[in-house]
Design a protein that fits this description.
Largest sheet: 3 strands, antiparallel
Radius of gyration: 18 Å
Number of strands: 5
Order of helices and strands: HHEEEHEHEHHHHH
Structural class: mainly alpha
Strand content: 5-15%
Length: about 180
């Protein structure tokens, strides 16, 4: 529905980041097609942005007119927005109105989760941010990306975590066997 929604979706699809990592990205942590993510256990890693994500971020940033250091800044409370006379139907475009932002705070992960779920329900799809992470990693593995690289992108220390995490079907195993074992 909005440029912000598109940027959120494309970031999740491109980086396979956790929703908490997405929420706290600062603008100065995006360098070309690379973005610094702050993962679990205060472990930083680099994720990569594809062309769609870069375009979505650019379009979203073109609509913003604020000085927040965060890619996705936090919105003031709905009660405060009513006091400022902001119509309810404009709330989803809050990022366009500097008075609607808490400049030095990032969006909450639960706000991102709620937005993804709402948009999913409108399409009759069960959607949540973590699904992008699992699906992206599973698709990369099926396309032939080595599991060690998938694990590194996901920020897993142990490859066993990645193996449990991925959705590997018996048909995938059979197809791989037919392709590699002769």
């Amino acid at each position: 529905e909005t440029a912000r929604d598109k940027a959120i979706f494309e970031m999740l699809l491109s980086t396979w980041c956790r929703v908490s990592e997405l929420a706290q990205i600062k603008l100065n942590e995006i360098n070309g097609n690379e973005v610094l993510l702050h993962g679990k256990g205060k472990k930083d890693r680099t994720a990569y942005l594809n062309a769609k994500a870069l375009l979505a971020i650019q379009n979203y940033m073109n609509e913003r007119k604020d000085d927040s250091p965060y890619l996705f800044p936090r919105m003031i409370t709905v009660a405060d927005s009513r006091k400022k006379g902001i119509p309810t139907n404009e709330l989803k475009f809050y990022y366009r109105i500097p008075d609607m932002l808490v400049i030095n705070e990032h969006i909450s992960p639960s706000t991102i989760e709620a937005r993804v779920r709402v948009l999913g329900r409108r399409l009759n799809i069960f959607a949540h941010p973590h699904k992008f992470r699992r699906t992206g990693a599973t698709m990369a593995l099926r396309a032939g990306m080595p599991i060690e690289q998938v694990s590194k992108i996901l920020g897993h220390e142990d490859i066993k975590t990645t193996q449990i995490y991925l959705d590997i079907k018996e048909t995938d195993i059979k197809a791989s066997h037919e392709r590699y074992v002769r």
